[in-house]
Prior knowledge:
The structure holds two protein chains of two kinds.
Chain A: H1 4-32, H2 37-42, H3 48-58, H4 64-76, H5 90-125, H6 130-144, H7 147-161, H8 177-183, H9 185-210, H10 214-221, H11 226-255, H12 258-263, H13 269-278, H14 282-309, H15 312-315
Helix pairs in contact in A: 1-14, 5-9, 5-11, 5-14, 6-9, 7-9, 9-11, 10-11, 11-14, 13-14
Chain B: E1 15-27, E2 32-44, E3 48-52, H1 59-65, E4 74-76, E5 81-84, E6 87-88, H2 94-100, E7 105-108, H3 112-115, H4 122-132, H5 138-151, H6 157-160, H7 170-182, E8 188-192, H8 200-216, E9 220-225, H9 228-234, E10 237-242, E11 245-251, H10 252-257, H11 262-268, E12 288-296, E13 302-311, E14 316-320, H12 327-335, E15 342-347, E16 350-351, H13 361-366, E17 367-370, H14 374-377, H15 384-396, H16 400-413, H17 418-421, H18 431-444, E18 449-453, H19 461-478, E19 481-486, H20 489-495, E20 498-503, E21 506-512, H21 513-516, H22 523-531, H23 539-547
Parallel strand pairs in B: 3-9, 3-10, 7-8, 8-9, 14-19, 14-20, 17-18, 18-19
Antiparallel strand pairs in B: 1-2, 1-4, 1-5, 5-6, 10-11, 12-13, 12-15, 15-16, 20-21
Helix pairs in contact in B: 4-5, 4-7, 7-8, 15-16, 15-18, 16-18, 18-19
Amino acid sequence: MGDILPLVAKRLGFGLLTLLVISVIIFFMVELLPGDIAQAVLGQGATEENLAALRERMGLNDPAIVRYFDWLSGAVVGNFGESIVTGERVSSIITERFVNTLFLAAYAAVIAVPFAILLGIIVALLRNTLFDRVANVLTLTSISSPEFFLGYILILYLAVKTSMFPAIASLSGDLSFGELLHRTFLPALTLVLVVTAHMMRMTRAAIINLLASPYIEMARLKGTPPWKVIVKHALPNAWAPIINVVALNLAYLITGVVLVEVVFVYPGIGQSLVDAVSKRDFPVVQACCLIFAATFILLNLAADVGAILTNPRLRHPK
Amino acid sequence: MTDTSPIAPGLRKEVLLDIKDLKIDGYTGEEWVPIIKGVDLKLHRGEVMGLIGESGAGKSTIGAAAMGYARDGTRIVEGSSIEFDGIELTTSTEADKRALRGSRIAYVAQSAAASFNPAHKLIDQHTEAPVHYRIQKRMEAQEDAIQLYERLRLPNPGEIGFRYPHQVSGGQLQRAMTAMAMSCRPDLIIFDEPTTALDVTTQIEVLAAIRDIVDQFNTAAIYITHDLAVVAQMADTIKVLLKGEEVEQQSTEKMLAAPKEDYTKSLWAVRSFERDQKARPENATPLISVQNVDAAYTGGVKVLDDVSFDIYEGMTVAVVGESGSGKSTTARCITGLLPPTSGQVLFKGEPLPPKYTDRTKDQLRQAQMIYQMADTALNPKVRISEIIGRPAKFYSGLSGTALKSRVDELLDLIELEPSKYYDRFPPELSGGQKQRIGIARALAAEPSFIICDEVTSALDQLVAEGILKLLDRLQKELNLAYMFITHDLATVRAIADEVVVMQHGKVVEQGPKLEMFTPPHHPYTDLLLSSVPEMDPNWLTTLLEERGVDNVGEAADV
Lengths: 318, 558
């Protein structure tokens, strides 16, 4: 195990470096946008004096590089500045919504990941049978349809026609955990449908890819039953690609949910990003982008570490 | 059918496996073609039969069929009969056949390193079958595994099973796999080339272990190999196969003493090519001079330690040693792929820059390589004309018709009809032809020195012989120097002028071939030479008596 910690530390270091590069890109991309922030905030009717005063207050007269470091040093301790539109602290706007998004992502992941991997194992076992084809067609259909379309279909059948679940996932008032799960079931189900196909097909492909290996033939020639060949002999060697795809999909569950949030009017971070962009609320946009980037980097890091931990050569060095 | 069993008459044993008119088809991607064309095989309890033939003869396919198993892309044709101890396998259900596998018929694969699952400990894989068949409880099975490891003379038998496959050496893995095959005390074991991937010194201990254990438990075995000398040590009976058909079957003594068929005789006569030894030219500077080279891979330990030898123009220097002895690393230092940590490589007395990126085009062209695996060394998606044409274009700046005629000339040199092969792709060629293309690619640069890295070890003996003759002819015509990396001492005998013996990254002994093959030797050279199997069926027995059972292979490492 001694060899793994430095490896993880190294990856973490690279992750932080990547994040730094991304922060530069985010900050200066926003900087490149045309228009004057002070003008945008105060509107067309603002006087020169008011504009100048606001620029002074927001530090817009400092060179970009100085403002970048101000922003970065704030971001490191969780202070992303204040919203231009409402004047609230960005962190207080985002935190609650980010927690909501994380909750929805976790809800979908807890269903989707075990379901996709189990289904992947089953179709690998029953490869080229009717079940395999049907499962493939269904999951591919769900991944190929736009998620807002899937969302509306689910609303039509599970909310409007049968009233089993609410069509709008509002989180107002005190909700019990069960109530919460019930209210957010439809958006979670939509997300499950969107991410399952990718993970299932990777599980299937990773396992089938190994079936030509000599050790699989050896297992068969030892009289091992087919399900055990797959679960005990192929799966432990197939984890690395599966974990990578799972991580990518988890990242998608957090960063790619804008449409689903809009369809179900769910108060997540995707919605606040869309709002902020349309209102040119730059501090919020920058903060959201940085959080999304950090999510991607963290999940990929976790996938790398997971792949290392499932590799016996790295876990048990000579 | 007459019984060709070698067992003394009067001592008739019970038939264990009876294969009649076995036909197997293989799928080529378009159609089913016959690969086994009606083979009969009768094996008695306790008998060891050697199946021998070149690659593509169908040996492994027959071995798998003896378990009622058709590999992916093959099928057993109706009308074949495989009867194992009274059970007809061709008509049995998959579940019935599975119940035999592992418990009554076991399999030992060619590469134990690839056939052990990297994700599980050896002992967990060992106990899988006995626990599955409820023959033993898990703890009993573990105890039994440890006892088998001890019998197979594995080091630390109590502990070795709890390691993962990558933590155990190749020869030990092969013995652990034999132990695994024994776990349910099967009636029949199929050994599919179990020592082909091993060094000669390691091969001996595996052979000895297999022979002992088969004797002790009176297990019947089918021993598949392409190495006659090996099968002579192991088998009671030998069956020779050619392209899916039986050539002949005899008891081992008879087969070795008096083979009947021409094909069998040609197999026996394979190692006939031998070339006279050339002496070093007087007062010449060596073409390549490796001087006190040390090398290490990034962050690793030293793999080469003070390696020095010279190669003169037009001569062949064979570098021999076990895997891991630093042969290929030396080649990488010469070509500049791995800059040495100290020491230098001289070309005609001039030092070569250590890194290939610092060498001039003319320095680069002088040293070319031919690889062991022609399969992986040639890009399967590139036409032959381009594979050979690219270095000719790069080093000599040829283009258009000049380039085409150069490629034709090179194809002529390697004895392949230019018009036929010019536009073909590597996967359409046989192993020997691919290796010839590899040679042509090296020649295209017009080098004065070629490194041949185990170029014949993946080929059948007859094909390998053709390649050796070709290399010899090219050497005479083009005055080439060869550095011949090999672990096969028969090849060394055939073509080398000088021999360098390496062990653990050091040069142990070097000198002209004839001197090296005459005693007295360095103890390690002696170990290498005496470990090469000979045709005499009593060779292994005699050798083991001489060395003592506990003093073979790795144990005898000097």
